[in-house]
Amino acid sequence: MAEGIWLRFLSGPDIDGLGLTRPELVAAVEDAIREHGEGRTSFEPRVHLRPDNGGIGHFNVLRGHLDRLGEHGVSGVKVVGDFVPNYQVGLPSELAMATLFDPTTGVPLAVLDATMITAARTGAMTAVGAKHLARRDSRVLGHVGSRGTAWWNVTMLDDLFDLDEIRATSRRPESREAFGAELAAVLDTPVRVVATAEEVFDGADILVEASRLTEPEPLLRTAAVKPGAFVVPYGTISAVELDLLDVMDKVVVDDWREARSGRFGSLRRHVDTGRLSEQSLYAELGEIVAGRKPGREDDAERNLLWHRGLSLLDVAVAHLILRKAEAADVGTMLRFH
């Protein structure tokens, strides 16, 4: 390499061509969650940038560091836009960019299209949570939402469980039908597309609420949560009833500081009203993955995981991608300094 400081730029097509598998993505995320549970990470809760754009969207800024990656660990920053109306102009609702840095010098290592990273690490978090908190004999998955994270949620959960049926819906008929067809093309498990959240969640063993609401609306009713169910509500805007936590045996979050921060999140009202507090919280998922607290202990437990999205997972997946890109000499080298 010529003199100077160079970094690797990895575009979306570069990353798509690396052949990343769902198991290796889940493994990278689970390792990061474990490291968080062991207290060997540094990160700050996300902050929001809200431009004067009529409320059509905002930016999330996430920052984190993992000790175990590379010789000295790796630090990273991700900026992700959250623009629900983007489908009207043919764009994903979440577009993201990540940067990785050497924590001993501040030298930038890479710039990556983090759109897939955002979606895949979210699905992997759902899967890791299910691995520790859902019943092993779960048979019916109910999923509300068809945005980018939805495909990863469903396919990664299908990898883990011997499902009999996957039910899916979203607000727009064309979106949910396309999502169902996309899933049916790659999965052996029967996929049923339905019109309402009530149909999706009725009697389901795993209930995932990943809607894209602009105003609170109870799509996931408390009465739909049967004994033994595992619930994952993580939409930006609340789509659950206020008494949902009253029936839960274990409420788990990705990080309590993250859960308390900002003005968004499915359980924001529950935190603000004291229904979810440090006292009522069972654990952070990292504590369970690290073996410091047990996960599911009873087939009748109703368990819930609320994950807002940890920057540590973005760093872990971005670093996995960077290592594979370096090995394959993929990407564009850019002169920085």
UniProtKB/TrEMBL annotation:
- Coiled-coil annotated spans: none
| Matching SUPFAM superfamilies | NAD(P)-binding Rossmann-fold domains (SSF51735)
Q: Name one GO cellular component term.
A: cytoplasm
| InterPro entries per record | NAD(P)-bd_dom_sf, ODC_Mu_crystall, ODC_N
Question: Mind telling me which PANTHER family this protein's record contains?
Answer: KETIMINE REDUCTASE MU-CRYSTALLIN
Write down what this protein is called: Ornithine cyclodeaminase
